[in-house]
Amino acid sequence: MKQKLSRSLFLIPALALLSIFVVYPVVNTIYLSFLSPEGEFVFLSNYADILTRREIVNPRGFARGFAFGALPHNLLWTLIHLPLTVFLGLVLAVILRHVKGKVIIKSVIFLGMVTPMIIAGVLLRFIFDGRAGIVPAVFSIFGVAPRTLTAHPDTALIALILGSVWIWTGFSMVLYSAGLGTIPKELNEAAQIDGATPQRIFFKITIPMLKPITTVVVTMTLLWNLRIFDIVYAATMGGPGGATNVLALQMFFYAFRHLEFNSAAVVATVLMFLAMVAATPMIRSAWRESQ
Amino acid sequence: MKRLLMLTLLLVLVSGVALFAAEEESLVIAVPWAGAELEAFLPVLRAFTDETGIEVTAITLRAEDLAVFLPAQFAAGITVADVIFMWGWFIEEKARAGHVLPITGVIDPADFLIGALDPMTIDDQLYGIAYTGKVKPGFWYRRSFFEEHGLAEPATWEEFVALLEEIAQIPGIVAPIASGNGVGWPLSDIAEHFLIAFGGPELHKALIAGEIAWTDPIVEAIFADRLVPLLEAGHFGEPTEWTMAKALWWGNDYGLFNMGSWLTGMVEDPEDLGVFALPGTEGIVFGIDYAFIPAYTQRPAAAKELINFLATRGQVIQVGEGGHLATYIQVPLEAYPPVDAMVAGLLVDMVALPDLDDTIGGAFQLAFWDQLKFLWVAPEMLPEVLEILEEKAQ
Prior knowledge:
- The structure holds two protein chains of two kinds.
- By secondary structure, chain A is an all-alpha fold.
- Chain A has helices at 2-33, 45-50, 59-64, 70-95, 102-114, 117-127, 134-141, 153-182, 185-193, 198-209, 211-226, 230-235, 247-256, 261-290.
- Chain A has one domain (34-290): MetI-like (MetI-like fold), CATH 1.10.3720.10.
């Protein structure tokens, strides 16, 4: 009993901090999302208003192929960015396992990850610039007329997504590299003795053994995709014509440019619930391990 | 031992009084300038300190950054600085909410350009000052470039279009006009220039006041008949980060560059600069830097002294540093460097107008910048662009 009590006492500082800096802001934000700017309780009507706005979901964008709205942009970002970074990270980790100078190569790939995202956004602006950028210069070798990819609504979003793949792949590569080091050599050796091909070993041993790592990589990438902000802010400010707008950026605009704090609270709450859904596999995995 | 204790106590007391006194005699001012622009502002603060003995520390905070945290600070009853430079619309909004110290009587409004203090005046109370400003006169060109290719300033719209076609034929030219980009404001300056030139100053004022719709046929015609054909003909270059666009224009990759008068302080040889407005233009945007005292300053008396100095004697010093035009009418023309005197001369016979998007602010300003970036690369989307602008202007 005494031991339990002392344990609980040690929890108090952490709980207090969490309550002040996490629980209270979250509850207050959710509460704010149910209020009108005049402070009246309007329940879900803010959600109905915000989630049907052109900047959040733009049905016209689907017809012409760009500026779908912040919510579809986040989903699109996830659909393209997630599989690419997971796949590239895994492939690079496997390939670089037995390469000389792998530490240097991995460090170079990981550089994108340690670059501040706001700087990465500025870099992307120049990388895709029609006059100074390396990407249009490479395209021009194949006869594509150089143009600033981030200035055109039909290419701006895909340019930023692919640019962010470069930034984030280092993360999944490092995690998979660490994961590969934890697979017991005996398993591979036993499989080889039994006559298994390298492909079979990869798919039947390596991939299943890396499942906990994949859960972490997928979850962290999902969360990163949902909170993407600084790259877009620095590279395009969500433009042109809202073609690269994302939820976190729109939340920022609502709060600090439009000074519509209730609208910002709605987007923040939606983002929080999406993040909770995204984090569920990792939480379940951690729970199973603890059991 | 006792003596030592007494001495220590005395020291603590003296340093406490010194600290208190120092705090009493020092102010913090938040300015939007950095680098060379800040260096040009510091002589103003030094002159104020020499005159009053009050030290002033300048911190660089862009309006975009201030807009993020000032609302929270004001809600908590604190402020980052005693005097703050900020957007006019923001000051007005915060003044209405009681976060701005009234300064009625601190300066005499009759000493300022007509209309300059309008955005700072609410119900006959003054809430901020009009510091210096910059004009957006139209299209800059290099005299040497025009001389080399036998080009001349246009006197009619037809001559303007012919000039663009002539420039487009010059070898090495990417496009006749450089399009500065960034967050989008350089393009908004071009659009405003077209609206003033072909709709007159009254249309500009009506758009600011919300008295005319962006989808109105008059507005639509200016875009559809004047700006869009030039965009479709490729007379405007692809939007490029504006400082890079400036360098490319100065390197003769482009013939013309639409930019504010601060350009005079950004080129190697200001004497080589020439500028013209679209033929028939009767108004000119005069973007004024506004400053205010937050209601939460701990030193209101000293802050009022500073704001009075900035609005009056400070402007004389500031214009002498170059790149600024005074709103204080007592500033003599001799106070300006020659190139700025030329720019100041552009205001003669022109109606000085407030910057459209800076005055409306809020959601409209962002939409205006973003939609123009969109229009520049997709001119065929004009109806949708105007529809969105009208929606955000409501």
